Amino acid sequence: MLSTHSEQPVSAPAPVPVKIIVAGGFGVGKTTLVGAISEIPPLTTEAAMTSVGAGVDNPGAVTTKTTTTVAMDFGRITVDESLRLYIFGTPGQDRFGFMWNELTTGALGAIVLVDSRRIDDSFPALDFFENRALPFVVAVNQFSGHLSHNLDDVRDALDVDPDVPVIGTDARSRAAVKQTLLVLLDVVLQRAMGRAR
Prior knowledge:
alpha/beta, Rossmann fold
């Protein structure tokens, strides 16, 4: 006997969306990191730095940088059929700091990208995530392909909790950024398991 009901194919559930934040000081490589890992053309909101902003925007030692992120960077990476990461890069200039609350709403964790030649630029991001108890990792960007300082020295200078990973990364390298994201996901998972106990 033939069935009168047409069988619908069972489709796989949609991947779980996970929001990740990339933060840090001006010119540390946030836009580069998002672009290196994103499987889609990243959305960037770069604007030219002009003489009008000379008294407001402080490029510090980054004298060759000619643009700045004015809203956010956005990229996406599918980890597997069950997990998709949406990566948001924060603006690094102080005058755009008001956007951080909106960008971090609903985030699972964060990467604080650090230029170890400009450690002081990292403290606003560290304070922000520590105050909100958002899991994060510290990723020291390898400018010129090498670390300027030993990671233990960077940890001491930043004075982060012992359970916060401090790792080296290269914001230009997809493989290095992927490894950084995996470390962050492990931190998030460990914290979730600790709460479940």
